Amino acid sequence: MNKKILIVEDEPKLAALLADYLTHEGFGNHWLGDGLAVVPWVRQHSPDLILMDVMLPQRDGISLCKEIREFSTVPLFLITARIAETDRLKGLEIGADDYICKPYSAKEVVARIKAIFRRQQNFSALLPVIAGFSLDKEKLHAFYKGIQLDLTLSEFRILAAMLDKCGKVYSRAKLLDVLHEDERDISDRTVDTHVKNLRHKLQKIAGEKEVIHSVYGVGYRIEVVAGETSE
User: Which among 149-163, 177-191, 214-228 has the top mean pLDDT?
Assistant: First the structure.
């Protein structure tokens, strides 16, 4: 598959188990055991995905995720022993694409990784300009009014889905399907958190204009406005 996974885990046995499963599935991987080495390694090697524990020596995974998001949109899974929904949502709010709760199945982790790469491959390449947006689904680049958006993979997926049928109302359940192929019991607040982050990034360009509309009790939609669609 020629994909490179960075494992950030301070427990050597857990890291070795993940590395064995990833290697068996054809993924390259590298292990880091503390937080201080993470950002320099990511900048130098540009991994295709990061698996990162929240509780790390030297620096915690939350602050690392926040810093990585300042320069990279690499898919990032946070691994946490904290099971409270508020703790998981905190990770999503600062840019994580998914979370994995300890104890976990290494086989399930690999399945999630394969699913996220499969969805990247299934994107068609280019979309026309729709509602002021232009997406390159191969490079995972998104532009609004000619300005590139710094989106995580989850935010990109949500935006691409809503633009695919512009004007259609997407329920939270439908957007959860866009984010996750498996049937995990995930709160609708996960979608709300990603949409909140996406709206914040759009607001920097759109100002007071509402780009993503909430439909009370249903979900979200993006509407085409005259003059914002072109071939």
Answer: 149-163
Q: Is the pLDDT of residue 175 over 60?
A: yes
In DSSP terms, which residues pair with 181 in a beta bridge? Answer: none
pLDDT at 43 over 50: yes
Average pLDDT over residues 78-96: 74
State the residue for tokens 């439908």.
174
* Contact residues for 86 (Cβ-Cβ < 8 A; gap 6+): none
Backbone torsions φ then ψ of 207, nearest 5 degrees = 70, -130
> Could you tell me which residues are beta bridge partners of residue 222?
212
What is the value of pTM for the model shown? 0.61
Report how many helices (DSSP H) and strands (DSSP E) the chain contains, helices first.
8, 11
Output the pLDDT for position 29: 96
CB of 35 closer than 8 Å to CB of 11: no
Domain CATH code at residue 130: 1.10.10.10
Looking at the fold, whether 106 and 22 belong to one and the same domain comes out as yes
CATH of the domain at 34: 3.40.50.2300
* 145-to-74, 203, 228 alpha-carbon distances in Å: 23, 12, 9
| Higher pLDDT pick, 132 / 30 | 30
Structure-block tokens of residue 220: 């979200």
- The end-to-end CA distance of the chain, in Å, is 35
Q: How far apart are alpha carbons 92 and 100 in whole angstroms?
A: 12
